[in-house]
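User: Here's a chain of 337 residues. Predict its fold as tokens.
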Amino acid sequence: MRKTMIGRMILLAVCTSMGFWDMAAHAADAGWNGKVEAPHYQERIFPPWQHGANNPTVKKGLNFTVPEVDDLADFHGNLDHPQLVIFVGGNYFFAMAPLVAAFEKKYPELKGKIYYETLPPGILIRQMQQGNTITVGNMTWTVQPDVFAAGLKKVNGLIRQGLVRGPAVPYVTNDLTIMIPKGNPAQIETLRDLGRPGIRLSMPDPRWEGVARQIQISLRKAGGPALERKIYDTKVKNGETILTHIHHRQTPLFLMQGLADAGVTWKSEAIFQEQSGHPISNIPIPAKDNTTAIYAAAVTKGALHPKWAQDWVNFLRSPVALQIFERYGFKPYHDVK
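Assistant: Prediction complete.
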């Protein structure tokens, strides 16, 4: 008995000195209870989606992708001497595969030589401001964009900053929707319902996701400043609103994992999730409360491939490209002047 007690005391002293108890306490606070379990979900619900179609590289070599662990879902193509580099806000990452395929059909000399990133515009801008260098996990790389594409106001802002050469070329518009799990277990019907106590939300962070500005406008339309404060202040503070870094991937994942009840996204993103067979649906937002975004593109300052960059910008307004966009609910942009 005495030896057992002494052994326990020694173990306690060792664990304390090594910080094990602090680690366990921290693990419990973090919600994972200090243990790792094998996944209990189907891997296909985790990015990258589209089964590799969003990688325009011809020779892919060894495919080593582990969903949720080793996964660079918003980086596409081969960095070995690309001939066209596109930085595009992630709101239509799913449309890029058919767009690139159609562009390569028109310009076959570019096949396998296009690289693109589909991060939120605010993060792409930060990458450009950091010398076009980005680090993901243990990998760091630098790539000079030829084209920047995002909301029209964002692109015009970069033109004024000197990061992008004008003019900005608008091509499609998009509307908002309320993304929900299939079956709508929280019985969400309107934007006002998002303010109900207990409704857990996944919402884009205004610091780097341009869609947050449109969402805030729509919240004010539907429920005044009080609804906007409830969603983006009160619920953030009490933990009922999760602010995302890449809402075009995080929100559907949070919904499918039961971590959120709803989230406002672009309508096109909900359509893509439904077309992919994921258990996702959406609640339309009436026109009086909705906010429309105009997407635009421009050639960047210092583009290494200005000819191909301009060809891509022009291509986005072509009938072929617009037909691809329309598959996901986008509408062609029409100048109202």
